[in-house]
Amino acid sequence: MQIKSLLAALAMSTAMTLPVLAEARTVTLKTTLTQYGGQGAYVAIYVTNPSGAYAGSLWMAGGKTKYYKHLTDWARFTGNNSAEVSGITGASVGAGRTLEVSMDLSDALFDAGYTLHIDAAVEDMRDSPNEVAVPLTTSGAGKPVKGRRYIANVQYTF
Amino acid sequence: MKLPLILTFTAAALATVASVAPAAAAVTGNPALRVTAPVQIAPESLALSAEQGAEDAHWLRLVSSDDDDDDHDEEDDDHEDDDDCEDHDARKCGGAKSSGAKGKLTPPDNGLFSTGKTPQVKSN
C-alpha cells in the first residue's frame, strides 16, 4: 500500500516537473560596452511584458544599491527595489569589456511580445536609461543590437 | 576635556596594577612581576600630564584624526569601484559575492527564470 502511494506521488511529481523542463530555454546574453572612458558601468537587464509593464529583472551588474537610482527606467519600474535583483547581482562592467550572462529562461518569453531592456549608468557621467530595447524573438537570436551610449552592442543566443 | 579624564583613569588603573603587583609577586615568588617597577613611575607622570596638559591636550587633538569632523557623509563620495572587482572573474567576484552577501543563491521568483538555477556570468 505504501509502495503504491509512493509510486503515485513519484508519477505526479514527474508529471509536474517535465512541462517546466520542457519550457526552459538556456539563453546567453552578451553585452559589450563601448570605450566610454569612465568607471565601471552599472547595467540593469530587465524585461517588459506585451503591454509595456515591468515583468522582472534578469541581471544587475553593480553591487552598490545606492547607485541603482541612476538606472532610471529600471528604478521607476521597480520603485528602486533592490529585492528585484536579489540573487542576480554581480560586479559592474568596465569600459570596453563584455558581460556574458547565461540563464535558464521561460520559453514563454519568446515570440510573445516581451521586450528586453538595458539601462546603464556610469559614475560622474550621464545616466542612460533604455540603452537597448530589443524584442525577445527566436528570429532575433544571434543578431547584435546597438546601444546608445555605453553599450556597443548586445545579443542573445540560445 | 576628554584627554585629561582618560589620562586620569589610565593613571588610576596603572596605580592599581602597581599596588597589586608586589603582593602578587610575594605570593608567587615570581621575580618577573618586578618588571612592573618602572610602571610605578608612569602614573605620577601621567597624572601630572593630566593636570598640566590642557594645552597639550588641545595640541594632541589637533594632531589626532579621530576627533576630526571632516568625514564626508555624502553617499556618492566614494567611488563605485571601491568594493567592486571588475578586474576579476565575475563568477568569483561579483556574482558570487553579491549573491552570497545577500544570502540568496537563487534568482527571484519573477516568472522569467524557468528554474531556480542562478545565472552564470562571465566578464572579460
SSE string of chain B, helix = H, strand = E?
HHHHE
Query: Structural class of the secondary elements of chain B?
Result: mainly alpha
Main β sheet profile of chain A: 5 strands, mixed
Instruction: Please list the strands of the largest sheet of chain A in the order they lie side by side.
Output: 4-3-2-6-7
User: How much helix is in the residues of chain B?
Assistant: 40-55%
Q: How many strands, which pairing sense, and closed or not: the largest β-sheet of chain B?
A: none
Number of helices of chain B: 4
Q: What is the total tally of β strands of chain A? A: 9
Give the helix proportion of chain A (percent range).
10-25%
What does this structure look like?
- The complex is a heterodimer of chains A (158) and B (124).
- Chain A is globular, with a radius of gyration of 18 Å.
- The model of chain A is unreliable at 14-22 (pLDDT under 50).
- Chain A has two helices and nine strands.
- With 158 residues, chain A is of the alpha+beta class.
- By secondary structure, chain B is mainly alpha-helical.
- Chain B has helices at residues 2-28, 41-52, 54-63, 91-102, and one strand spanning 120-123.
- The longest helix of chain B has 27 residues, at 2-28.
- The two termini of chain B are 56 Å apart.
- Classes of the chains: A alpha+beta (158), B mainly alpha (124).
- At the A-B interface, strand 3, strand 4 and strand 5 of A face helix 4 and strand 1 of B.
- Strand 5 of chain A pairs antiparallel with strand 1 (120-123) of chain B.
Keywords summarizing the entry:
heterodimer, A: alpha+beta, five-stranded mixed β-sheet, four-stranded antiparallel β-sheet, 9 strands, 18% helix, B: mainly alpha
Briefly characterize the structure.
Chain A has 158 residues and is an alpha+beta fold. Chain A has two helices and nine strands.
Give the SSE map.
The complex is a heterodimer of chains A (158) and B (124).
Chain A: H1 2-22, E1 24-33, E2 42-48, E3 54-61, H2 72-78, E4 89-90, E5 98-106, E6 115-121, E7 128-135, E8 145-146, E9 151-157
Parallel strand pairs in A: 3-4
Antiparallel strand pairs in A: 1-5, 1-9, 2-3, 2-6, 6-7, 8-9
Chain B: H1 2-28, H2 41-52, H3 54-63, H4 91-102, E1 120-123
Helix pairs in contact in B: 1-2
